[in-house]
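Re: the pair you flagged

First of the two:
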Amino acid sequence: MIHPTAIVHSNARLAEHVSVGAYSIIGEHVEIGAGTVIGPHVVIDGHTCIGSHNRIFQFCSLGEIPQDKKYANEPTRLEIGDHNTIREFCTFNIGTIQDAGVTRLGNHNWIMAYVHLAHDCQVGNHTIMANGATLGGHVHVGDWAFLGGLSGIHQFVRIGAHAMTGFQTRLAQDLPPFVTSAGNPAAAHGINSEGLKRRGFSSASIMAIKRAYKTLYKSGLALEDAKEAIQGQLAECPELQLLVDFLAAATRGIIR
């Protein structure tokens, strides 16, 4: 299932039923799991591990060295999980020794064209990144997050689970779970209610999350007081633990 014009290094490890399209190049330290389909004109290099049943479309570059002047050819990695769709012209770089040394993309993600994952990004599961979304180095993205087209995420920013950015959002501070943001610079615009409904959150849980949002953004409370108030709302909505934990760990500040 390897096209005769593809170049696959003899040391690369390809599982059963991997397909490699015309003129694609697979490097020496690459491992690809069963059932993954690599389109034409794809370059996969570096210490890159790709799981099973992914589909990678034409003209992607995965596992290249970071766009970081400090990088000095250390054997850092790119890890991609299972059941991801990665559309045309995406670029994912390996990590750096200044962080965990690995860039990660989890499972069941839908990555549209021209998305960039810089070095040391950590992306969870079931995310959607629309065309042209760009993650600077060291960005963390939680499960089920949605990044709108041409969103620009500053390095070291964290995006919480179920959060959402609108078209052309410029995000330079952390975006808490459940919160929808848009603008340049980004501002909060309510919670991702529609996404939560699609994922099976009950009406009561969504109402409790809206209440927590109002506590954080509309009550006039200082951040520490708002965090304490949301802690007190956990009993009625255990899903708020995501928000409580995120706020406790925030170091860059949140959009507010």
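Second of the two:
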Amino acid sequence: MLQEMLSLDFMQNAFVAAFLVAVACGVMGSYVVVNKIAGTAGGVAHASFGGIGLACFFGFSPMLGALGMALACAFIMGYLTWIDRDRSDTLINVIWAAGMAAGVILTDLTPGYSGDLTSFLFGSILTVPRELLWGMGILTAVILGVSAFFFKPFLAISHDPEFARVRGVPVLRLYMLLMAMIACTVVMAVQTVGLILVIALLTIPAYVAESHSDNLKQMMLLACVFSVTLSLAGLVVAYALNFTVGPMIILFSVLLYALNWGIQKLRGAN
């Protein structure tokens, strides 16, 4: 069956797309978990739907619209969480809801729009064109390069931002850069699991990896391994059963989380 899948052009594209998105999610998901900003990342993902609606209304690329809106919301939400994390939840949820609502309304207002919103909400990895893979590859390379170059400052602001500020680290600018990278990862993952499920792919592999890691580098490596394995396994099984790929990937992720939780409980009992 695997040989049959790899003989199909669209499945080759899907495998490459799944790998690229999984690696980006493994790295950026680790930052999301360490910084405890899963809610913020989820807000960015859902609010970016407003950009898709805007793109449909004005007639340009939905992915470009999603990226622009995701970046704008990431900066706003990032600033809100940075200045007052305890009170930012309400505003983040408002932006989250406003983005989703605006996206639906704008597509309703688009003359002659007949697209399928389900592909944006739950992913459409089997329809990824080869030319988009180049953009996804470049974006993944940028995410990995920036993450490696700023690893020590990112680590500092993730664990002790006050101490980092005293040492002269530009904490707010680095935090905004981190939020921008998360936004880019979210938009990439739209092709794989969709806006509704992207936060699970960002966080679950990283959560599991954290429980088996001694440091952030090890956590990122394990998160990438888990994320790639889950994505490719979900793709293969979904193809075999004729299911939607995105939800299948997330189902495997939830099963991994449950298995890890059970193992941790057994270890604790002993």
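The chain has a mean pLDDT of 86.

-B.
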